Amino acid sequence: MEISENQLLRFTTAGSVDDGKSTLIGRLLFDSKAIFEDQLEAVETTSKRKGHEGVDLALFTDGLKDEREQGITIDVAYRYFTTPKRKFIIADTPGHIQYTRNMVTGASTANAALILIDARHGVIEQTKRHAFIASLLQIPHIVVCINKMDLVDFSEEIYNDIISQFEEFSSKLYVKDIRFLPISALLGDNVVNRSENMDWYQGAPLLHTLENIHISSDINKIDARFPVQTVLRPQSDGFIDYRGYAGRVASGIFRPNDEVAVMPSGFTSKIKSIDTFDGEIDEAFAPMSVSITLEDDIDVSRGDMIVKVNNKPEAEQEFSAMICWLNNEASKPRAKYTIMHTSNEQTAMIKDVLYKIDINTYNRNEEDKGLNMNDIARVTIRTTRRLMIDEYRDNRNTGSFVLVDDVTNETVAAGMIL
Amino acid sequence: MSKYYLNYLDELESEAIYILREVWAQFENPVILFSGGKDSILVTHLAKKAFYPSKIPFPLMHVDTGHNFPETIQFRDDLIEKFDAQLIVGSVQESIDKGRVAEEKGKNATRNSLQITTLLDAIESNKVDCAIGGGRRDEEKARAKERFFSHRDDFGQWDPKNQRPELWNILNGKHFEGEHFRAFPISNWTEMDVWNYIKRESIQIPSLYFAHDRKVVWRNDSWIPVSEYLKLEEGEEIVTKKIRFRTLGDITITGGMESDADTLEKIALEVSAMKKTERGNRTDDKRSETSMEDRKRQGYF
Known about the structure:
A: alpha+beta, Elongation Factor Tu (Ef-tu), domain 3
């Protein structure tokens, strides 16, 4: 296959502070030759100054002054590497206190999540939290990396024991594809290269696994949804009457001559053409950015959604959702927020908090109605006008939203529609 | 079965177009920050695609340090004409003349940090509420932390600890009067992606990126081009070398490399074998371990 046909895989990493997450990313970058000489030199110098033996791979990922000083990761950072098979984007999320908010951020666009477990400690509460968030965010693929195998004598027994611990609690979660790998990020066992210390492990190393995960099916190709971002009206020579609806296909497939409805008005028409700068095309699927023209001159603007006549999203003014609170400031009872959903914005209110979830125990708390930073809760949202929604489980693009505080303009909550 | 997935370049292109359209939809007065380097040329090319068949709906803004490669200015003016775009120029020389900033002194003096004041002044006087830049997260460690929509307070400052979380594809560009945003549509591209795309799309770039004979001086581990702003130090000698530039900044700080790569194919091949980062030849980044972060906090793009 030619390099130009390579796909892009986005993955996120989760682990607690000392699970070796940064070391794993450093190892992936280092062994796949994505580290440049000058970066290596800089890290070698810092390692020496800090009195580390050898190169501290974790230093490749901690970029900010405060992070290097305190040895912690403050915010999501993005890393890149390419192999002959794929291009990878890593959302490197910090594992400490603000874990939920950061992990949700990194997980929202990920095809895969790497969950790290320290082989010496096995499944701990943190592991359950990570698995729960990965399941809540519907990350299609989970790779559980049982790390620090070098510190447990590369024991197959310990590895198998951790797998059964993980499987026991994860049976309650909704995860489609889950894999396990014994690794040592520090020594590089089973990261890019196969481990010589674990003959008993017959599977592929991590990089090979990431290169071969089947991701084409991660995108919903059934429900055609096209949120309109903006209207293109050039009014220039050759395009006097042109009205193109610019947007990015959220899911499904569109073709010229498709019978479509423009929501929420419900007016119907036919697709006249699907245009790009490089010419008209025969079909558009997610995540392509195109512009669509219609046979009829109907009123379409930003926030509207073009869908197939026989497959429409729900038009709701009230719906339930799981939300994750992202802000330092707690939610205010019955306060109004701006809801951003696809290209649509409306005023919304958290009408009711049904329960909060303790992500350590999965227990529901129906008493405490306040939403604080990192809380995950099931709520009822009411909006001033109808939104065109799908369930998050079916559609990550039309099933997700954020809430914005109108006083501070900050994004305060991330929501997944149930 | 036909394939229903995009290759990585198409996916990156689609993502960038989506972001450019969000900028246009969410802001009143956006501009593209245009430096004449390959990344800002790429962003301009993507903007052409995003709004086709309309013209690029926002002006290009060039912060002119006065220490340009002459090729850069020529290229800029040709591009503006080709795209029938509008150009806004913020002049560092003017900022100096007005006493807003003072020229640095000494051998390593540059106008790089002076740009920040000129940029912020130009943003303010043109009432720009979103400045679109060609910054990429793979360039530098502080950039790896950058959002697509990056909030700046009314002093133009970036606070890495107070960034808006970006979830799914939802970009929140809400801001108060006086504040502005920086938008980075090619955040997820790497240097290699940029070259592969430029090659694929046959995008025109300044001749400086291609190897040709130039008069240069060896300084700070790279070949610094001879210009009227360069003051020779003792022991430095002007030589003619076949040089190309991997990245373009001010003529005073951009180091060239010896190369025979005079076509896009050869450049892509050369870049894929590079052992040093792109900014390794930029003396402005070598001043301290956190120079990019410090500049960004002050309002650099």
